[in-house]
Structures are given as C-alpha cells and as structure tokens.
Structure prediction request, 193 residues.
Amino acid sequence: MNARGTGTAWSSETGTRSSQNTPTVHTVSPTYGGLYSVVSATQWIVSDSFLNLEQFLINEIAAESAVALEAAIVDGDGTDKPTGFLQATTTTTDDATRTFGELQYVASGNATAIPHNPATPVHGGDVLLDVVDALRVPYRRSASWVMNRSTRTTIAKWKDADERHILTPGMGGSPDTLFLGQSTFLYKRHGTV
Prediction:
C-alpha cells in the first residue's frame, strides 16, 4: 500500500536539482475466508415444484451471500472472513501525520447522533461538510458515503437554508447524492449494519 511521501521541488531550467523523498510502501495482509451455503432439496420437492427450484436456490444464495459479504467488508472481525474497515484503529489525526492503517473520523460532538438544529451553530449538514473537507482532495471526486439505513433516513430529512433536502434521491438507477447544490457526493446504500 502506497503511504505516499514523495518529495517535489521547483527549479529553473539550468538550476540544480537535489534528491527528493521516495514514497513509503507498506505491506497489507488481507484476511481471507470462504463464504459458502449448503442447501438441500428432496427429490419429491424437485419433482413436484412448479417453479425452477434450481434457479430459485441460486437467487436466494446469491442474495444472502451479498448481504454477508457487505457486512464483512464493513464490520467483519477477520476470523475466516474479511476484516471490515470499521475494525481499524480510529483517530482524529489527519492524513499528513496519521499512522498507516488508522482510520480517521470527524467527531460530530455527540456520541449517539449527528446534532442537527438549523438554529444552532452546529448543524448536521455542517458536520457532514467537515467530513468532506477532511478527505484528501484527490479522493473527493470519486468518494461515496457509506451509512446504515437509520442514518440515511435521518439525513434525508435535513434541509438547507433554502428548504431543499440535502440528500437528493437518485433517478433511473443513478445513486442518491448529498449536497447537490454545492458539490455532488454519491451515497452508497448499506442496509445490513
């Protein structure tokens, strides 16, 4: 994993050039496991079924596997499955000084909810903008929000000063967006956490 650190410097066409810092590279050891499903069907149900039982089982296994995989990627404990990103050590330290492997968070000022009262200086939308601002500029363009259903419901009710909802539902298969009037940030649904 590239931890960056490459140095740069300016020089005139004929000026001297000195060696710059090289990037730091870290080894990342992912955790593995095999996701499986064992289902059984008797010959009687196969013979008497009016639907394509094989396709039904394939669809059910695929749907449940997607839910299990998504949950592991977010909060998996690393035992015979992926280690979820929420299992990382967390800190408020920014990219420039944060230890490799730590996950930066932006404190909302409330341990159980994002405070939201448009009449106060700490507004929920402002907290979300603080999160966006903490993200390194190169990552902002393709960044996505990951949140559970109850957080999405809470944020979907928030409005800006012009009474526009800050979360705009996507149309025609496009993702929902946050802050459409300023910068657009995609929101990825995550309904299993």
Observations:
- The chain is about 25% helix and 10% strand.
- Residues 88-189 form one domain.
- The helical segments are 43-48, 53-75, 124-134, 137-140, 149-156.
